[in-house]
Amino acid sequence: MKIEHMAVFVHDLEACKDFYVKYFDAKANAGYRNPNSGFCSYFLSFEDGARLEIMDKPGIAEIGPYREHMGYMHLAISVGSKEKVDELTSTLQRDGYCVVRGPRTTGDCYYESVVLDPDNNAIEITV
After folding, report:
1. Torsions phi, psi of 88, nearest 5?
2. I want to staple 110 with a disulfide (CB 3.0 to 4.6 A). Which of 11, 20, 72, 106 is the partner?
3. What is the DSSP letter of 55?
4. C-alpha angle with apex 65: 45 to 7, nearest 5 degrees?
5. CA distance 1 to 4
6. Statement: 1-58 belongs to CATH 3.40.50.360
7. Do 1-58 and 73-127 have matching folds?
8. CA distance linking residue 124 with residue 127, whole number of Å
9. Is 73-127 in CATH node 3.40.190.10?
10. Per-residue pLDDT of the chain (127 residues; tens, 9 = 90+)
């Protein structure tokens, strides 16, 4: 078995699509729009076959900006090396994205940084 994809609701579908395409080399499909429900989505495919569905629909409830809570907490994306973690984290910070923490080595020897995407979803950038 494998996880086929993960899905997340966002406010700004286009900004989030552009973020993952620009910084994480995702490939976006043409998108889906349901005129009856207002639901819109993109599937973003990554080099290793993993997929992320970003979605928007009127009336979705808020849980607030990045904070610890029960349920899904972050999406981890491996970039292959400590140097790439450092470089991408610096690029994102320079481009105005919030770096929550890192780059750092955690207590369990995991090298990471955590940044927020345009909708304040936590992205853990790892080796």
Report:
1. -65, -40
2. 106
3. E
4. 25
5. 9
6. no
7. yes
8. 10
9. no
10. 788 899 999 999 999 999 999 999 999 999 999 999 999 999 999 998 999 999 999 888 776 666 665 567 789 999 999 999 999 999 999 999 999 999 999 989 999 999 999 999 999 999 9
